[in-house]
Amino acid sequence: MSIEIIEDATPELEEAFARLIPQLSQSSTPMKIEDLERLLAQDSITLLAYRADEPDAQGRRPILGMLSLVTFEIPTGVRAWVEDVVVDSNARGHGAGQKLAEAAVEIAQRQGAKSIDLTSRPSREAANRLYKRVGFELRETNVYRYKA
What we know:
- This protein is α+β, with helices and mostly antiparallel strands.
- The protein is about 30% helix and about 25% strand.
- α3 (about 95-110) crosses α4.
């Protein structure tokens, strides 16, 4: 199992998004290659991918999981958010999510982040256990959303 930083929008990445995003959110449309180019051009975004150990029929090691790390500087310091963590349903339970989260923490710390936040629905019990294993702590806070 390997974790890598994705820097280029490719047909392979577009295919991975088409397969993984519906597993994350039924209301989100997977990104097309031009959308991926815009996403990856942002300095604040680090897209991490988990690749299979074994090659597929085409000889490629497919992307089986992804995580978006967003880092930004505000007046009180550098902050980071983990977003859109998804592991293919066929690859869950083998440590991919943990490796992605640990890599995100390491990268955020190298970038000087004072804190790393994420949100996860309470119904995602396995994901919540994973985040606690990695070292995230449940915060006593209100999360607000304004839908534009």
